[in-house]
Amino acid sequence: MSYSKETALIWQAMGIGALWIERDAEDPLSPSAVLADSPKTAVATVEAPKAEPAATEPKVETPVALQPAAPAATPVWGEMPKAPAPAQTKSVTPQAPVAPAIRPVAARPAPVKRDATLEVHIHDEKPIAAGVVELDHEILAKIPEASWSELREVVRGCTMCKSLAQSRLSTVFGTAERGASIVIVGEAPGRDEDLKGEPFVGKSGELLENILHECGWKRGEDVAIINVLKCRPQNNRNPHENEMKCCRAFLDRQLSLLGPKIVILLGRFATMSLLDTQASIGSLRGKEHAIEINGRQVPTFVTYHPSYLLRSPSEKLSAWRDFTLARSAWIK
Q: Backbone phi, then psi, for 46, in 5-degree steps?
């Protein structure tokens, strides 16, 4: 198959049909020969057009009347938009400024008139110092002959310990009627006990309940639980000696009415009050003591307070041994 010079030019212009046949430089159909002999117009159709530099492009000036108005610049955050040029601003007939809508201000409610007598709260008064006691001989005269329920009412109305009467929410009398053979004596009510009016109802009470259960005792039946103080000291401070002496009459009457077989003292202040000693719990626990109730010596045992056991779990084994010792005396 033969190829003409015209065929080569057409293929070269269309960018198809590569000439793969080996030809020498003098061959009239070789690419070099074809390009060398082709006219300028033919070469222009073969070469890819090149973009002219921007500087050589002719500038066509649009008449001013035909030029569109330049778009307003988009404002950038933090910058104020520039006002348009006066020539491009469309004249607008000025209008009277519109007054902003005024919202009516809600009238303030009139102050509520409060009854001064209802606003007085005992906890808002200046706290009375611990240990301030004023004996009420009328109350003390009722104690020796009072029944369990009568004694509860006397305690409820007692205000002899001024600091305790000021800060308490309720009095905490005890949890058992007469007939319990075991009496556990605590120190003073805490926050939970003050709110509910019963002794040992918080975390300490849960621990004590577990101990009683392991001993085979039931609270309210086998066990009566009472406190040296019947009112919570403000901010759970320690009981004052004057307060313990003042409240001792209630405690003695409770023990007399209950007539227990054994007594278990929880903590330092219960031990101080009933054993009349300043010795440490560690030196007193693990042995049997005795207090007189209704003319007889009742076996009494000393152990750690449950709140102390919560802070010192390593002493729980010692407390369990104390309860085991007390249980042995109870079984006899």
A: -80, -45
Helix (H) or strand (E) run with residue 142 in it: helix 137-142
Average pLDDT of span 9-33: 56
- Helix spans in 260-315 (H): 268-275, 281-284, 306-311
Residue 75: pLDDT band by 50, 70, 90 thresholds?
A: very low
List the end-to-end C-alpha distance of the chain, in Å, as a whole number.
135
pLDDT single digits (tens) 176-221: 767 799 999 999 999 999 999 999 998 999 999 999 999 999 998 8
Q: Using an 8 Å Cβ cutoff, are 192 and 272 in contact?
A: no
Residue 247 tokens read as 């409240």
CA 184 to each of CA 40, 42, 110, 114, 278: distance values in angstroms, whole numbers, following the listed order? 125, 123, 56, 46, 20
- Angstrom distances, CA of residue 321 to CA of 102, 194, 299, 304, 317: 81, 30, 16, 11, 6
What distance lies between CA 100 and its chain's CA centroid? 47
CATH of domain 127-331: 3.40.470.10
C-alpha triplet 176, 150, 208: angle, nearest 5°: 20
Give the whole-angstrom CA distance, residue 206 versus residue 197. 16
Q: Which residue has the higher pLDDT, 48 or 217?
A: 217
Q: In what order do the strands lie in the sheet with 296-303?
A: 223-227, 182-186, 262-266, 296-303, 288-293
**What are the angstrom distances between the C-alpha of 220 and each of 139, 186, 198, 217?**
27, 15, 12, 9
Q: Given this model, what pLDDT does residue 51 score? A: 52
Extents of the domains making up the chain: 5-39, 127-331
Q: Distance between CA atoms of 153 and 133, rounded to whole angstroms?
A: 20
Q: Do 271 and 289 meet the contact criterion of CB atoms below 8 Å apart?
A: no
Q: Measure CA 179 to chain center.
A: 45
Report which of 249, 214, 209, 213 is spatially closest to residue 230, judged by C-alpha positions.
Answer: 249
Q: Which helix (H) or strand (E) holds 290?
A: strand 288-293
